[in-house]
Structures are given as C-alpha cells and as structure tokens.
Amino acid sequence: MELGLLLAGLARPVDMFMRCSFLLALAALLVGCGQEGDSGHAPRRDSAVDPGHDAQPDGQSGPEAGARQDSASDGGSTIDTGAGPDLAADLPAAADLPADRSSSADLGAADTASGGTDAAIDGPGTGVSADIGCALAGSIAVDSLPPISFVTYHDQLQIETYLQSVASALPAIAQYRVLGQSVQGRDLPYLIMNATCQASPPAIFANGTHHGDEPASTEAVLAIPDYLLRKSTTDASVRSLLGTYAFYVLPLVNPDGFALSTRENASGVDINRDYSYPDRSDADSFKTVEARLVKSLQESVGFHAAVAYHSGAQEVIWPWCYTGDATADGSFFTAAGQKTAQAMDFLIYQQSYDDYPTQGEYIDFAYWKSHTLAATFEVSSSKSPAAALLASVANGACKGIIAWVQAVSDHDKGSLHSLPATAAERRRFPLTAPFDGTNRLE
Description:
CATH superfamily of the domain at 130-425: Zn peptidases
Order of helices and strands: HHHHEEHEEEHHHEHHEEHEHHEH
Low-confidence stretches: 1-14, 25-135, 428-440
CATH topology of the domain at 130-425: Aminopeptidase
Helix content: 25-40%
CATH class of the domain at 130-425: Alpha Beta
Structural class: alpha/beta
Strand content: 5-15%
Distance between the termini: 148 Å
CATH architecture of the domain at 130-425: 3-Layer(aba) Sandwich
Shape: globular
C-alpha cells in the first residue's frame, strides 16, 4: 500500500510536468504560427487603395472590385452591399467605371461643339456630323450677341462685320460665309444659323437686295439673325422654329447695285429677271454672275422655304410670276400669305402674276427647281424710307418671316388651315394701270 501511495505521489509531478510541457508546446506552436504569418509580408492594405487587390489577368477589375471592404478593417466581417463610405471617397467604385467611359463620346461632342471650329455647314449645303457645331435652340447665349440698331442704313463693310460678329459670338450654331464675288469683285456675304443638332436639316433662305436701289430690303434681311435669336429666349414658337430649320441669311445679292444705288447689277442687268422658269431654260438664263451664285446655293441646299425681300410696296406675293395659272400649292400659298400679311400689318397678299406678270424671278426658279415654298415680301412703300422708319420696317419684316416659316411648319405637320385660291378672288394688277412691263418693283 505504501508502495502504491509512493508511486501515486511520483505520478502527480509527472502528470503536472506533462501538462505544463503540453501547454508550453501548444503556446509555442501558436506563437510560431503568428510569426510565420507576418514574416516576409507587408501589412495588408484595404482593397480600395490596392489597385492590384482584385485585378484579373487582363488588368480589368474583378466583379467584386469596389464592392467589398477588407475583413481586417472590420474584425473579419464582409460587406456585400457595395462600397463603404471610405471606398467611395478615395476611389470610384469599379462598377461605375464602364458608365464613365461610355460617356466620353458625349464629352468629346460637347468639347467639339464649344470649340466652334466649324458650325453646321462647311459650304453651301454641305452638312457635317450632328455632333459638330450643335446647340439646342433653348440654350443660345444671346447675351453674347453683338448689338445692332436700325436708326440708319448700313454699308457693306458694316453688314459684313456684323454677320462675322454673330458667327464669332455663337460659333456653335452660326457660320459666316462668302457666296462669291460680284461683277466688280464685291463679296456676297451670308450667315448660316443651325441650332437643330442635325447635319442636314430643312433650310430656310432669306435674301435681300436683288435690286440695289432697294436698301430697305437689305436692312430687313440684316435684322433677321438678331430678331430670331433674341426672340427665341421668350417665345417658344420661335425657339421651336430655330430647333427645326437652319436659316441662311444673305442681305446683299447685288452688292454692286447697292454701292451704285442702281436697280441692276454693274453690267446693267436686272438680276431678278435672270433666273430660269418653266418657259425658259437655264441655258437662256443666268447671264449675271450674281444669279449664278444664288443658283449654286439654291441647288446645293434645296431650300425648303425662302423669302426674297424687296421694297417699294407693302405686300406678300408668291409663284407663279410668269403665268396666271395657280401652282399645285396654291391653297398653302394663299393661307400662308394671309397669315404673313396679317403679321406684317399688310393688306395685300396674292399670287405674283396678279400683281403684275414677270419672267425670271427668283421665287419662280426656286419653286420650280426645288419645290421651295418661296415668297416675295415687299417690306415698305418706299424703296428707301427715311432712317427714322427703318426700325419699324425691320421689325415688320422679321415678324413676316416668322409667320411664313410658322405656316410652313404647320403645313409640314398637316395643321395649316387652307384657304381657297380661286381666280375670282384674286386682285389683278392693283398697282399698275396699264402695266408697261418696265420699271417695276420686284
């Protein structure tokens, strides 16, 4: 028994020793594991600032990039609901990158537009990308427009300078161009305004001074850019027109006659009798360089509608000029003429032939060749009214083109109420009795 007690006593220290040895060995093992985990490795960084953390072999971010936080930062928990606040602040989540990259095309378009290197059209009728020279009509910065007033007549240099200034002020939508040179080498300057965001929108043409001794027509056309652009900021209908149509504005068809105060050009030819029409071919027309230039513009663009401005009467007239037969669009012309005359506070609106017959006018050529809905506006009873009346003339002329283009727009949409255009309702030759065929207005 005593021997058994002795052996039991000896076993206790051995058991204690083994227990202690076991615990010490276990502790050493645990410490060794911890040291091995830290040796030879830098501390882990959060995946938000570790560009290689979730990288795939092709260098693209993996599906979880930016959608999780490192477990060490939150005691081992994993967040599956998206990037945490620090992640979003430090680096855009990878899930957002594709959207950002896809928007680069829009940013490039915006940069190109703001640069204004080229607006909507490089040359007569030549369209470019819709992303170039494009601005919504509702965002036109009219405060940058150069000032213009109509308290006196403008000379050619002032006209050119003004059109250039508009183009410089609004390079995203406006371009200054020169159609060519007259007999005596003077420029035929014009302005293109395209706020449609289209490369080849339907186009409206306004021209003046076919006859050099009608400077009121020059002022009327010159007033159009400022009037339309400023009016668009307060009038939704005008803004809609600018967003639908490109406008070509050519104040001086006949700069030589303008400088010389003569009806004809420098060669003594009436330009507005030099266009072809159904009874006269191109080969027998276009003897004047100025009419040929207008022809080139007309044929390259194919204007949807046009207004030729003249002065010496107050009326709105339309094709045909050479015959009393009504056109296929007689009901449109009558309805549009009435609406336009009312807007301009004029009493007379009629087919041009019913004013008096002519051959070779621009509006017959444009309607015949391009089906352009063309009209002539006689904007003042005097060819050159007193300077004090110019503002009123210009204002009425601008109201006229808005009314005409609005009628065209309504016609395009099928909403223009047509009026009958019967011969019995026409007023014939109200301004001449008898007509001698010479020295007439348009």
